[in-house]
Amino acid sequence: MKLHMNKPRNILRKEDCEAIAKLLDSGFSIKDALVVLKEKENEKAFDEIMNRLNDGESLHAFFYLYCPKSYVVLFESMSQCMPFLDSLLTCIEMHRAIEKSQKQIIDGMLYPSLLFLGMIVGMYLFNALILPNMITLLMGFQVETDHLLVMHEAIQWIAEFLLWGIVLLFLIVMTALKKKHIVNTYCFVAKRFPDSILVHSVSAMFARFFLECLKRNVSTQNTLHILSQVKQQPCVSYIAKEIDEHLMRGETLIEAIQKTHIEKALLRFLKIAVFSSSSEEMLEGYLQMVEIRKQQAIKRYSTYIQLISYSMIAIVLIYVYQILMMPMTMLQNL
Fold first, then answer.
1. What Rg do the C-alpha atoms of the chain give, in angstroms?
2. Residue (of 218, 211, 216, 207) closest to 280 by Cα position
3. What is the DSSP letter of 2?
4. What is the rounded CA–CA span in Å between residue 298 and residue 106?
5. Longest dimension (CA), the chain
6. Residue among 320, 322, 319, 306 at smallest CA distance from 110
7. By 3-state DSSP, what share of the chain in percent is helix, strand and coil, each rounded to 5?
8. Per-residue pLDDT tens for 39-74?
């Protein structure tokens, strides 16, 4: 049964939740853990939790309300099918995995992306502000500039095309990845581009959630129920609901998995895992493969983008050098 309560004003920090989980896992009671970890930053929230415990309320019933926003939905769903400590530990592990994945992608792709964008903006500004003055200067030396005017137009067209292309692509991606659209986007991409980055990422996240529940000895039915409630990950929730619907129709787990929108590699791993005594090891192997594949993809992206950016910068520098040398060449020919 889903609980609905008013959100308290005093919210715990992520480090508070992690510290509580560590102490509980070490054998401390929740009250002892609150006393040990109490400090100025969490005092009010801890006092409220302690008062509710003293009033006889169950920790399961209200603790998720004091968790950070990124924990709430996941923890609330898991607490209905797992013991409190398992719910908290799973929530923390999943949040760490999500943050780690996002950080790897951002760290790996931010610099080359900014370099590429800076290169385009630099080309546009150079073409708009500097190159016209250089062409005018060369005209004063009676230098033929027709080919420079053609190059000026070409650079302007290329720069504007790339800039507007990036803006349009950004708007399309941001719209497609909004929560109300992302499931439809995922289904569209999964049907037409089953080996795309989006399908790989969602499949890996589903496997990560599934593995964490498996480690806590949660049944397949309860695992699917938990995952179907994870509103922070709409595509993971959709896949879980999809599998659950097929199971409700009397199909086997293998048949249900085969009809879902997940990547082929995960499908093969799950087929083996169902009949294996080491299901956890199989899923961990899949996630390790995904990690290696993701790092390779980020490296390829970074290499290609930097290569293109540096090549364009080199071409512009050579072009500028030739322009600057034209008056010198003309004087030498006099």
1. 28
2. 211
3. -
4. 10
5. 100
6. 306
7. 80, 0, 20
8. 988 889 999 999 999 988 888 888 888 888 878 777
Alpha carbons 16 and 303: distance in angstroms, whole number? 40
At residue 292, the 3 state secondary structure works out as helix
Residues 214 and 204 sit within 8 Å (Cβ to Cβ): no
For the record, the structure tokens of 248 come out as 């409700």
- What are the distances in angstroms from CA 156 to CA 128, 162, 163? 8, 10, 11
At 186-201, the pLDDT tens digits run 999 988 888 888 888 8
For 223-254, b/e burial (b = at least 16 CB within 10 A) is bbbbbbbbebbbbbbbbbbbbbebbeeeeeee
* Contact predicate 309/112, CB 8 Å: yes
Give the CA distances from residue 140 to residues 136, 151, 330, in Å, rounded to whole numbers and listed in that order.
7, 19, 12
- DSSP character string of 115-183: HHHHHHHHHHHIIIIIHHHHHHHHHHTT---HHHHHHHHHHHHHHHHHHHHHHHHHHHHHHHTSHHHHH
Helix (H, G, I), strand (E, B), or coil: what is residue 152?
A: helix
Assess contact for 115 and 305: CB atoms under 8 A: yes
pTM of the model: 0.77
Distance (Å, whole) CA 33 – CA 49: 12
